[in-house]
Design goal:
heterodimer; A: alpha/beta; six-stranded mixed β-sheet; four-stranded antiparallel β-sheet; 9 helices; 34% helix; 15% strand; globular; B: alpha+beta; eight-stranded antiparallel β-sheet; 23 strands; 20% helix; 33% strand; binds guanosine-5'-diphosphate
Amino acid sequence: MTAPAAYQVSHLDALEAESIFVMREVVAEMERPVLLFSGGKDSIVMLRLAQKAFAPANIPFPVMHVDTGHNFPEVLEYRDQRVAELGLQLVVASVPEALASGLVRESGDGMRNRIQTPVLLDAVEKHRFDALFGGARRDEEKARAKERVFSFRDEFGQWDPKNQRPELWALYNGRHHPGESIRVFPLSNWTELDVWHYIARERIALPSIYYAHEREVVERDGMLYAVNEFFRPRAGEDRFKARVRYRTVGDASCTAAVRSDADTVEKVIEEVAATRITERGATRGDDRVSEAAMEDRKREGYF
Amino acid sequence: MTTETVAPDGADSRAATGAGPEARRMDLLRFATAGSVDDGKSTLIGRLLYDTKSLFTDQLAAVEAVSAARGDEYTNLALLTDGLRAEREQGITIDVAYRYFATPRRKFIIADTPGHIQYTRNMVTGASTADLALILVDARKGLVEQSRRHAFLCSLLRVPHLVLCVNKMDLVDFSQEVFERIADEFTAFAAKLDVPDLTVVPVSALRGDNIVSRSENMPWYEGPSLLHHLERVHIASDRNLVDVRFPVQYVIRPQSTTVTDYRGYAGQVASGVLKPGDEVMVLPSGFTSRISAVETADGPVAEAFPPMSVTVRLEDEIDISRGDMICRPNNAPAVSQDIEAMVCWMDETRPLQVGGRYAIKHTTRSARAIVRGLHYRLDINSLHRDESAGELGLNEIGRVRLRTTVPLLADEYRRNRTTGGFVIIDESTNRTVGAGMIVEAQ
Ligand SMILES: Nc1nc2c(ncn2[C@@H]2O[C@H](COP(=O)(O)OP(=O)(O)O)[C@@H](O)[C@H]2O)c(=O)[nH]1
């Protein structure tokens, strides 16, 4: 960063400064923070911001992956590589283990988004985490537009939209009683495009599935799903090869790809800038269930 | 952050915010919107998002589907901007919602504050971080009580720029006379409030007049379109670059074998400019030293100014911890346990009372405080001061005297919004129950 004569900062620098401020507040005020790291682009950007916030010291908290068992291998590989590079402690909250121990039961439709929540809450309790960094952004979804940067959760991890603390200036209130916790969203004010501009500017490596590649897919409900061990075509669904990329990385059984030729970060930025469908609307079977799907899951303790 | 040429305003702003150097040249403007119910706030925001191509087809399709299911005659853009099912069921909005759009010049963050019962709390929240506030009135109704309240709250929160949008001009035949009557009345009122910058724009949110480009229906209007104004309003000089205030947020001391003896004070510059070599004073201790370096993870910088998050290093080893403030020996905030402040109360369960004890968060410092006195409660419609008031209820504003357990490092809010603002927290519920703006610290 060079100092300009006019004492102005760009929007990316302003967003970065705000996110770094938020992360430092949490580490200064909370006892046991953890960063939710899925290997998705937002959590990757969050990790970069954490590096910057505490340099030259190491990131002073562990990362946690809520593992649904339905993973893209490229993403798991990326996760392990980053964790090793940064010398981080990785906590895995495992849905398959929770299924085996009887903590949760597979839902009828086989989607693991809902049963992820008790597994997350169980890990939070076990490790006594009191602050959880999440990569959610307010531009993603309408229930998120009203989310605080510091989002208070009761002892059941539940979000009560009517019982959120007013958030003034940059004065975040992280106080809580034992058992309660705070979800913290340092990327609240970033948009999808801001995230991509930042990835380009910082030259951040991403899992390869974010860039265009050839894959065998089927079309269901107007979305393209990759055929893999977690996603089986139904009778009558045609498999075909397509050039696709992922806009979000979630559970491999319900995250869809979009047709794309964007194989570099610059091309992705052009594509995102021109696209007219939200990333969740385009790629997440889980959010399509009902108009209030996200709101309901947040109330139950989801991010 | 080098000076690059700015791309001309294209019609397709989303595409123009894509790749290329201009994207890095954009700055950030935060604004809050306020209006009474049905003045057209949702329509206006929907229009700004739509015309800057910030709306997505699936969002639009969802709203169209809901509109059709409810039997609305037109696609109700208001549905785009009220988010939660609880709200939709009751047909109201209960909370501040944040929206985003960008043009090649700027990224915008809208704090959309609803005009209902809790609106004072919401508006104060939205205005606290706003560079600009946009107040809407219906041209047919002119100024109403709420418009004055909105203007008052903007001035209380020291929002530097105010825009009055006189909406629904299409319903008054785009009449210059109607517009000027409202503009004059508002301008006169704003003058009493000490509003630093006021712009009045006649618009039709529904039809798009004077939103993105100048309307042909109002040739008599010579000012800018709303978006043109939002893109160009000069906000850089709103920041205080004079008073050096660096609240220490966190002390970085790596426990590592490769980096030894490192000690850095991390924080976000509240105001002023910090440079290596500057003589500084640390409060509350009063020790002085010099800045040896201002660092970021990307390397040292020559200067730090708001809103940069940096790490400051000093030449001398002095004992500094979170909550301390780095300033200049000849320009320091007050170090005081006696605080006079305007307080907006935000708790519905219990009022603020004289003798009440609370926790306070001010910059990166926490304290406990006791309410020593309530000088008056302000009627925000008449600006009348009620000196007999014994408490402040939800959404009420008054002047309060506080005594804190430890000194605050405080400036007047009118001089410094970061070192002059604080929140009040109920120690038993941990809820944020009030917002304070320092008037005086002795
Ligand atoms: N004729 C006309 N109607 C408008 C205009 N702006 C909003 N409206 C209508 O006024 C009503 C209330 O608008 P809405 O945006 O929901 O108001 P809000 O309560 O302030 O968000 C709706 O029926 C809009 O279509 C305008 O500029 N001209």
